[in-house]
Design a protein that fits this description.
Blueprint (H helix, E strand, L loop, with lengths): L1 H14 L17 H15 L8 H6 L10 H11 L3 H12 L2 H4 L9 H14 L5 E5 L5 H9 L4 E6 L2 H11 L7 E5 L2 H7 L6 E5 L11 H10 L10 H12 L5 E7 L9 H9 L3 E7 L3 E3 L2 E3 L1 E9 L6 E4 L6 E4 L32 E5 L6 H4 E2 L1 H7 L6 E9 L7 E8 L10 H12 L6 H5 L15 E4 L1 E2 L5 E3 L5 E2 L3 E6 L5 H12 L1 H10 L1 E2 L5 E2 L2 H4 L18 H6 L6
Parallel strand pairs: 1-2, 1-4, 2-3, 4-5, 6-10, 14-19
Antiparallel strand pairs: 5-9, 6-9, 7-8, 10-11, 12-20, 13-15, 14-15, 16-18, 16-20, 17-22, 21-22
Helix pairs in contact: 1-4, 1-5, 2-9, 5-9, 7-8, 18-19
Length: 569
C-alpha cells in the first residue's frame, strides 16, 4: 500500500541509527551484531505497543540491555503502520532490517497472504472446523490472522522461537479487539513435547525453512529423535517439524503445512512417504506450490494436508497449485517417491530393456554454488573499473536466452577465482575482500565452509555442454566450446569416457529436438507461470530416441501429449 511507504521508511531509518555501543538484545541465531542493535531499537518501539496479554517471557526477550528512548516521530510512524494491515507491514519491516541470509538459521521468511488464505479456505472446504489451531512457526502472524477470521470460535496458539517476529504479531494484535490468539515464545519441538490439546486440533502454517546444513549438530540429533524415525539426515527443519507433528497426531487432529517439496523424492523422506501412505483413513492432499516465492527467496514447495481419521479408506491426491492437473495415487507403493502432475514414469517405452538412457552418455550436475554471487560474479567492465586483474577472473556463462534456430543466445560475465590468493598480493583485490567482510559476506554459509572464504578455485565447474535449468518454452542446450564456467542457475553436462563424437552430436541434437524437449519437460517439476524446473537426477533416467524421427510437439496427438506429460487443451 502506497500510504504505508513513508511510515515504513521512517521506522526503518530510526531503527538503523545505531552505533557500536548502542544497546543490544540477547543473541538471536543468525543475526549479526549490527542487526541485533537495530532490532533492540525496534523492540523498544514495540514494548510500548504490546497488549496486556503479551506473555512475560516475550516482554523480557524484547527488553534491550540498556535504555532506548523511542523518538516521537518513529512511534507515530509505527502507529500508522499498525492502523491498517499491520501484519503485512510488519513483515516488510522485519525483512528490511534483517538480510535474507541472516534469516535462514531461523527460517524466517514470510508467507504471502494469498497463500495462507488459499490453504485455510481449502482445508475448510474439505474438513470440519477445528476447535484449536496451532500456528507452527507463526512469525508475524499471517496464518493466525487468517485462521481467526475463518474460525472465530477456535483457540489459536501462535508458536515461534523468534521474539521479534512474535513481538510484531503481539503489537499488531493489540489493535484488534478479541484477537483470541495465545502467543507462545517457544521452540516448537519443546512446545509439542509439553502440550497435548484436548480438542480437535489443526496444525497449520509455514514451518521454518532452515536447511540441514544450518542446523546445529546437537539440534540435529534431538530433532531426528523427535521425528521418531520418519525422516533421515539432510532433512530441512520444515520436514522435521512435519514428521514430529505426525508422530503427535491423534485421530481427530489434522495438518495443513506448506514445506519444501524435496522429501517427496529424496532418500531422507522414504519413511515419511511410507507413513503417509499407511494412514489409510486420513485423506492426504499434496498440492505443489508453484515454486513458492518468498521475499528474495524461491522454494519448490508443497502443501501437505492430512485430514482427521474417517470411517472409511480415504484417497491420496497430488495436484498443481491451481488444481488443473491432478493425480490419484495408490497407497500400496510404500517408500516410493510421490509423482507430480506433468511427470511421466521414467521407464523405457514399451518395456524396451535395450533403450539407451541419458545417463549412459553423460552425467549432469548443477553449476558452482558460490554462496555470494554479488561478490564473485560481475560483468568484465565492472572488474576493470575496480582494477581487478584478469589473472583473477574467468569467463562465465551467466544466462542462456532464446536465439536463432536451435542455438541459444549466450549472456556472459566473469567469475572471481582467487586461487591460493594471499592478502596483500593486490591492493584492489584486498579492498574488494575487505568491503565484503564489512558486509558479513564471509559469514554466509557456503563462504564460511571454505578454508579461505573468497577462494572458489576448487569449486569452479566448466562442463562440456551447458543446459538451462528452468524453462517455459524450451530448455536451452549449448556445447561449451570456449570452456566457460557456470554457476548454479545452470546445469552442466559432462561426457562419460568412451563416448565418441557421433554419439555426443546425437545426444545434443536429441536434447534440442521436439522429442527431447518433450522428455525434459515431462521429467521436470511443474512451476509457476508455465515454468518447468529440471532435476539432474531425473535427466539421467530419460530414454534417448532418434531426433530425426521425432514429430514436432505441435503435431503430437492426445496420446503422445499424455506420454510427454502434457494435456491437450
Amino acid at each position: 500500500m502506497a500510504d504505508a511507504e513513508a511510515p515504513l521508511l521512517e521506522v526503518i531509518a530510526w531503527v538503523r541509527e545505531v552505533t557500536s555501543d548502542s544497546p543490544t538484545l540477547r543473541p538471536i541465531p543468525g543475526i549479526n551484531d549490527s542487526e541485533l542493535r537495530q532490532l533492540a531499537r525496534l523492540a523498544a518501539l514495540l514494548r510500548g505497543r504490546l497488549g496486556d496479554s503479551a506473555p512475560d517471557a516475550l516482554i523480557e526477550a524484547l527488553t534491550p540491555e540498556g535504555p532506548i528512548e523511542p523518538q516521537g516521530s518513529a512511534v507515530a510512524a509505527l502507529d500508522r503502520l499498525m492502523s491498517e494491515d499491520a501484519v503485512v507491514h510488519f513483515a516488510d519491516l522485519y525483512a528490511a532490517i534483517v538480510k535474507p541470509a541472516n534469516r535462514r538459521p531461523l527460517g524466517t521468511f514470510f508467507t504471502p497472504r494469498e497463500y495462507a488464505q488459499a490453504i485455510v479456505d481449502g482445508f475448510a472446504s474439505r474438513h470440519d472446523a477445528p476447535a484449536e489451531v496451532v500456528d507452527v512457526g507463526a512469525g508475524v502472524g499471517i496464518f493466525s490472522e487468517v485462521a481467526r477470521a475463518k474460525w472465530p470460535r477456535a483457540a489459536i496458539h501462535a508458536i515461534d522461537i523468534n521474539p521479534l517476529t512474535l513481538g510484531l504479531q503481539a503489537a499488531a494484535a493489540s489493535r484488534v479487539p478479541e484477537w483470541s490468539v495465545q502467543l507462545e515464545l517457544a521452540d516448537y519441538r519443546c512446545w509439542l513435547d509439553s502440550n497435548t490439546p484436548t480438542r480437535p486440533t489443526l496444525y497449520l502454517g509455514n514451518p521454518p525453512y532452515t536447511r540441514w546444513q544450518l542446523l546445529d549438530e546437537g539440534d540435529r540429533r534431538s530433532l531426528l529423535r523427535a521425528a521418531g524415525g520418519l525422516v533421515g539426515a539432510r532433512a530441512n527443519l520444515s520436514t522435521l517439524f512435519l514428521a514430529m507433528t505426525l508422530k503427535k497426531l491423534r485421530p481427530e487432529d489434522s495438518i495443513a503445512m506448506i514445506i519444501p517439496a524435496g522429501w517427496m523424492r529424496a532418500d531422507y523422506g522414504k519413511k515419511l512417504r511410507s507413513h503417509l501412505r499407511s494412514a489409510r483413513y486420513r485423506r492426504l492432499s499434496l498440492r505443489l506450490a508453484d515454486s513458492w516465492r518468498f521475499d528474495q527467496a524461491i522454494v519448490d514447495a508443497v502443501l501437505v494436508e492430512v485430514g482427521p481419521e474417517a470411517g472409511a479408506p480415504q484417497p491420496i491426491e497430488v495436484s498443481d497449485w491451481s488444481g488443473s492437473e491432478q493425480l490419484n495415487l495408490s497407497r500400496e507403493d510404500g517408500e516410493a517417491a510421490f509423482p507430480a502432475p506433468g511427470r511421466t514414469p521414467l521407464s523405457a517405452p514399451n518395456g524396451d530393456a535395450h533403450a539407451e538412457r541419458f545417463g549412459e552418455f553423460a552425467r549432469v550436475t548443477r553449476g558452482t554454488a558460490s554462496g555470494a554471487h554479488a561478490f564473485f560474479v560481475r560483468p568484465a567492465v565492472e572488474w576493470e573499473k575496480m582494477g581487478i586483474p584478469e589473472t583473477y577472473r574467468c569467463r562465465l556463462a551467466r544466462r542462456l536466452r532464446p536465439g536463432l534456430g536451435s542455438a541459444p543466445t549466450l549472456e556472459t560475465a566473469e567469475l572471481l577465482v582467487l586461487s591460493g590468493y594471499e592478502p596483500g598480493s593486490n591492493v584492489n583485490v584486498d579492498a574488494w575482500i575487505c568491503a565484503a567482510e564489512v558486509e558479513g559476506i564471509n559469514e554466509l554459509h557456503l563462504c564460511k565452509k571454505r578454508t579461505a572464504w573468497f577462494d572458489l578455485s576448487a569449486e569452479v565447474k566448466t562442463p562440456d555442454v551447458i543446459l538451462s535449468a528452468l524453462a517455459r518454452d524450451a530448455f536451452h542446450v549449448l556445447p561449451n566450446a570456449d570452456g566457460l564456467a557456470i554457476t548454479n542457475n545452470l546445469f552442466g553436462l559432462y561426457w562419460k569416457d568412451g563416448v565418441d563424437q557421433a554419439a555426443k552430436d546425437r545426444v545434443v541434437n536429441w536434447l534440442r529436438s521436439s522429442r527431447g524437449q518433450a522428455a525434459l519437460r515431462a521429467s521436470a517439476s511443474v512451476e509457476a507461470n508455465g515454468l518447468h524446473r529440471l532435476s539432474p537426477k531425473t535427466i539421467g533416467h530419460l530414454v534417448v530416441s532418434d531426433p530425426d524421427q521425432a514429430p514436432a510437439v505441435a503435431e503430437l496427438g492426445p496420446t503422445e501429449l499424455a506420454a510427454a506429460g502434457r494435456r491437450p487443451k
